[in-house]
Amino acid sequence: MGEVIRLEDRRARRRPETVGDAVRAEFLFDLASPFTYLAAERVERAFDEVTWTPACSRTLRCASMPADFGDVQEIVDHAEERAAALRLPLQWPERWPTAVPAAMRVAHYAAQQGRGGAFVLAATRLAFAGGFDLDDLEILTEAAAAAGLRLDGCLKAAREERRDGAMEAASRRLLGAGADRLPALWVDRGVFWGEDRVGDAAATARLHAAAAGR
Protein backbone atom coordinates (compact mmCIF):
# COMPACT_ATOMS: atom_id res chain seq x y z
CA MET A 1 0.00 0.00 0.00
CA GLY A 2 1.35 3.45 -0.92
CA GLU A 3 2.18 6.10 1.61
CA VAL A 4 -0.44 8.82 2.16
CA ILE A 5 1.18 12.24 1.75
CA ARG A 6 -0.37 15.07 3.77
CA LEU A 7 0.20 18.47 2.22
CA GLU A 8 0.08 20.09 5.66
CA ASP A 9 2.95 17.90 6.87
CA ARG A 10 5.02 18.54 3.76
CA ARG A 11 4.51 22.27 4.12
CA ALA A 12 5.48 22.18 7.79
CA ARG A 13 8.74 20.37 6.98
CA ARG A 14 9.79 22.95 4.42
CA ARG A 15 8.52 26.05 6.29
CA PRO A 16 11.28 28.48 7.23
CA GLU A 17 12.06 28.65 10.93
CA THR A 18 11.40 32.37 11.13
CA VAL A 19 8.02 33.93 10.48
CA GLY A 20 9.52 36.76 8.47
CA ASP A 21 10.56 34.60 5.51
CA ALA A 22 7.40 32.51 5.06
CA VAL A 23 6.28 32.39 1.42
CA ARG A 24 2.82 33.96 1.30
CA ALA A 25 0.21 34.73 -1.34
CA GLU A 26 -3.44 35.61 -1.77
CA PHE A 27 -5.17 33.36 -4.31
CA LEU A 28 -8.22 34.94 -5.96
CA PHE A 29 -10.46 32.55 -7.83
CA ASP A 30 -13.81 31.64 -9.36
CA LEU A 31 -14.91 28.05 -8.78
CA ALA A 32 -16.71 28.04 -12.14
CA SER A 33 -13.42 28.49 -13.99
CA PRO A 34 -11.48 25.37 -15.04
CA PHE A 35 -8.28 27.36 -14.58
CA THR A 36 -8.95 27.62 -10.83
CA TYR A 37 -8.89 23.81 -10.75
CA LEU A 38 -5.70 23.69 -12.80
CA ALA A 39 -3.97 26.21 -10.52
CA ALA A 40 -5.24 25.33 -7.04
CA GLU A 41 -3.18 22.19 -6.42
CA ARG A 42 0.05 23.94 -7.39
CA VAL A 43 -0.81 26.99 -5.27
CA GLU A 44 -1.40 24.75 -2.27
CA ARG A 45 2.06 23.22 -2.66
CA ALA A 46 4.00 26.34 -3.67
CA PHE A 47 3.28 28.63 -0.71
CA ASP A 48 3.61 28.32 3.05
CA GLU A 49 0.59 30.54 3.69
CA VAL A 50 -2.28 31.16 1.28
CA THR A 51 -5.28 33.44 1.70
CA TRP A 52 -8.10 31.95 -0.39
CA THR A 53 -10.33 34.74 -1.76
CA PRO A 54 -13.34 34.10 -4.01
CA ALA A 55 -13.76 36.84 -6.62
CA CYS A 56 -16.43 37.77 -9.14
CA SER A 57 -15.75 36.96 -12.79
CA ARG A 58 -18.62 39.17 -13.89
CA THR A 59 -17.13 42.24 -12.22
CA LEU A 60 -13.68 41.46 -13.61
CA ARG A 61 -15.08 40.65 -17.08
CA CYS A 62 -12.29 38.11 -17.16
CA ALA A 63 -10.99 36.01 -20.00
CA SER A 64 -11.16 32.76 -17.99
CA MET A 65 -14.95 32.50 -18.38
CA PRO A 66 -16.78 32.85 -21.71
CA ALA A 67 -18.69 36.06 -22.37
CA ASP A 68 -20.63 34.51 -25.23
CA PHE A 69 -20.96 31.23 -27.11
CA GLY A 70 -18.09 32.11 -29.41
CA ASP A 71 -15.66 32.17 -26.49
CA VAL A 72 -16.65 28.75 -25.12
CA GLN A 73 -14.71 26.54 -27.52
CA GLU A 74 -11.61 28.69 -27.24
CA ILE A 75 -11.61 28.32 -23.44
CA VAL A 76 -12.37 24.59 -23.64
CA ASP A 77 -9.48 24.04 -26.03
CA HIS A 78 -7.05 26.04 -23.93
CA ALA A 79 -8.09 24.36 -20.66
CA GLU A 80 -7.79 20.89 -22.18
CA GLU A 81 -4.36 21.74 -23.58
CA ARG A 82 -3.19 23.00 -20.17
CA ALA A 83 -4.67 19.97 -18.36
CA ALA A 84 -2.80 17.65 -20.69
CA ALA A 85 0.44 19.57 -20.14
CA LEU A 86 -0.04 19.38 -16.36
CA ARG A 87 -1.13 15.71 -16.54
CA LEU A 88 -4.39 16.45 -14.75
CA PRO A 89 -7.76 14.85 -15.55
CA LEU A 90 -10.40 17.22 -16.89
CA GLN A 91 -14.13 16.54 -17.07
CA TRP A 92 -16.61 19.28 -17.90
CA PRO A 93 -19.62 19.79 -15.60
CA GLU A 94 -22.84 19.22 -17.51
CA ARG A 95 -24.11 22.79 -17.03
CA TRP A 96 -20.78 24.54 -17.67
CA PRO A 97 -20.37 27.41 -18.33
CA THR A 98 -22.66 28.67 -15.60
CA ALA A 99 -21.96 30.63 -12.44
CA VAL A 100 -21.99 28.75 -9.13
CA PRO A 101 -23.09 31.44 -6.63
CA ALA A 102 -23.97 29.09 -3.77
CA ALA A 103 -20.59 27.35 -4.00
CA MET A 104 -18.80 30.70 -4.12
CA ARG A 105 -20.58 31.85 -0.96
CA VAL A 106 -19.56 28.64 0.78
CA ALA A 107 -15.98 29.25 -0.40
CA HIS A 108 -16.13 32.67 1.27
CA TYR A 109 -17.41 31.04 4.47
CA ALA A 110 -14.73 28.33 4.26
CA ALA A 111 -11.99 30.96 4.01
CA GLN A 112 -13.35 32.66 7.13
CA GLN A 113 -13.19 29.31 8.93
CA GLY A 114 -9.58 28.72 7.89
CA ARG A 115 -10.63 25.93 5.50
CA GLY A 116 -10.53 27.85 2.23
CA GLY A 117 -7.85 25.74 0.61
CA ALA A 118 -9.42 22.44 1.59
CA PHE A 119 -12.79 23.53 0.21
CA VAL A 120 -11.42 24.91 -3.06
CA LEU A 121 -9.47 21.71 -3.70
CA ALA A 122 -12.45 19.48 -2.89
CA ALA A 123 -14.90 21.58 -4.92
CA THR A 124 -12.76 21.96 -8.03
CA ARG A 125 -11.89 18.26 -8.04
CA LEU A 126 -15.58 17.39 -7.95
CA ALA A 127 -16.36 19.91 -10.69
CA PHE A 128 -13.51 19.45 -13.14
CA ALA A 129 -12.11 16.02 -12.32
CA GLY A 130 -15.54 14.50 -11.68
CA GLY A 131 -17.80 16.59 -13.92
CA PHE A 132 -20.28 17.43 -11.13
CA ASP A 133 -22.39 20.59 -10.76
CA LEU A 134 -21.18 22.51 -7.70
CA ASP A 135 -24.49 24.26 -7.17
CA ASP A 136 -26.19 20.87 -6.75
CA LEU A 137 -26.83 20.73 -3.01
CA GLU A 138 -25.65 17.13 -2.67
CA ILE A 139 -22.35 17.88 -4.42
CA LEU A 140 -21.87 21.09 -2.47
CA THR A 141 -22.34 19.33 0.85
CA GLU A 142 -19.91 16.61 -0.25
CA ALA A 143 -17.24 19.25 -0.91
CA ALA A 144 -17.99 20.90 2.44
CA ALA A 145 -17.68 17.58 4.28
CA ALA A 146 -14.38 16.82 2.56
CA ALA A 147 -13.11 20.22 3.73
CA GLY A 148 -14.15 19.55 7.33
CA LEU A 149 -16.82 22.26 7.39
CA ARG A 150 -20.00 22.21 9.44
CA LEU A 151 -22.97 21.44 7.22
CA ASP A 152 -25.34 23.89 8.92
CA GLY A 153 -22.85 26.74 8.50
CA CYS A 154 -22.39 25.93 4.82
CA LEU A 155 -26.10 25.74 4.09
CA LYS A 156 -26.61 29.10 5.76
CA ALA A 157 -23.68 30.68 3.91
CA ALA A 158 -24.94 29.39 0.54
CA ARG A 159 -28.07 31.57 0.94
CA GLU A 160 -26.31 34.71 2.17
CA GLU A 161 -26.28 37.17 -0.73
CA ARG A 162 -24.31 39.67 1.37
CA ARG A 163 -21.23 37.56 0.67
CA ASP A 164 -21.46 38.49 -3.01
CA GLY A 165 -20.41 42.04 -2.17
CA ALA A 166 -17.10 40.86 -0.72
CA MET A 167 -16.38 38.94 -3.93
CA GLU A 168 -17.18 41.97 -6.07
CA ALA A 169 -14.85 44.07 -3.91
CA ALA A 170 -12.05 41.52 -4.41
CA SER A 171 -12.49 41.78 -8.17
CA ARG A 172 -12.41 45.56 -8.04
CA ARG A 173 -9.06 45.34 -6.24
CA LEU A 174 -7.76 43.21 -9.09
CA LEU A 175 -9.13 45.60 -11.70
CA GLY A 176 -7.30 48.41 -9.96
CA ALA A 177 -4.07 46.41 -10.23
CA GLY A 178 -4.58 45.83 -13.95
CA ALA A 179 -5.64 42.16 -13.81
CA ASP A 180 -8.02 40.91 -16.49
CA ARG A 181 -8.61 37.29 -15.51
CA LEU A 182 -8.94 34.71 -12.76
CA PRO A 183 -7.33 32.97 -11.06
CA ALA A 184 -4.83 35.53 -9.80
CA LEU A 185 -2.10 35.50 -7.19
CA TRP A 186 -1.29 38.56 -5.13
CA VAL A 187 2.20 38.47 -3.63
CA ASP A 188 4.28 41.17 -1.96
CA ARG A 189 5.84 42.25 -5.26
CA GLY A 190 2.64 42.46 -7.29
CA VAL A 191 -0.21 40.56 -8.92
CA PHE A 192 0.11 37.63 -11.32
CA TRP A 193 -3.02 36.67 -13.21
CA GLY A 194 -3.69 33.56 -15.23
CA GLU A 195 -3.20 29.89 -14.33
CA ASP A 196 0.11 29.76 -16.19
CA ARG A 197 1.66 32.41 -13.90
CA VAL A 198 1.64 30.31 -10.72
CA GLY A 199 5.32 29.47 -11.09
CA ASP A 200 6.27 33.11 -11.67
CA ALA A 201 4.31 34.23 -8.61
CA ALA A 202 5.89 31.55 -6.43
CA ALA A 203 9.42 32.40 -7.58
CA THR A 204 8.83 36.10 -6.90
CA ALA A 205 7.40 35.39 -3.46
CA ARG A 206 10.34 33.15 -2.58
CA LEU A 207 12.84 35.82 -3.58
CA HIS A 208 11.02 38.39 -1.45
CA ALA A 209 10.84 35.98 1.49
CA ALA A 210 14.56 35.24 1.23
CA ALA A 211 15.38 38.95 1.20
CA ALA A 212 13.13 39.57 4.19
CA GLY A 213 14.84 36.79 6.15
CA ARG A 214 18.35 38.21 5.77
Can you describe this structure?
α2 (34-46) links the parallel β1 (24-29) and β2. This protein has helices at residues 7-14, 34-46, 57-60, 69-86, 101-112, 116-129, 137-146, 151-158, 162-176, 198-212; strands at 24-29, 49-54, 184-187, 190-193. Strands 2-1-3-4 form a four-stranded mixed sheet, with helices on both faces. It contains ten helices and four strands, in the order αβαβαααααααββα. With 214 residues, the protein is α+β, with helices and mostly antiparallel strands. It has a single domain (24-212), classed as Glutaredoxin (3-Layer(aba) Sandwich), CATH 3.40.30.10.
Q: Give the mean pLDDT.
A: 86
User: What is the N-to-C order of secondary-structure elements (H for helix, E for strand)?
Assistant: HEHEHHHHHHHEEH
Q: What top-tier CATH class fits best? A: Alpha Beta
Q: Which residues sit in consecutive blocks of at least 5 with pLDDT less than 50?
A: 1-5, 12-19
For this structure, what is the CATH homologous superfamily? Answer: Glutaredoxin
Helix content: 40-55%
How many domain regions? 1
Layout of SSEs?
Blueprint: H1 7-14, E1 24-29, H2 34-46, E2 49-54, H3 57-60, H4 69-86, H5 101-112, H6 116-129, H7 137-146, H8 151-158, H9 162-176, E3 184-187, E4 190-193, H10 198-212
Parallel strand pairs: 1-2
Antiparallel strand pairs: 1-3, 3-4
Helix pairs in contact: 2-6, 5-6, 5-8, 5-9, 6-7
Organism: Solirubrobacter pauli
Protein name: 2-hydroxychromene-2-carboxylate isomerase
Domain DSBA-like thioredoxin: 26-198
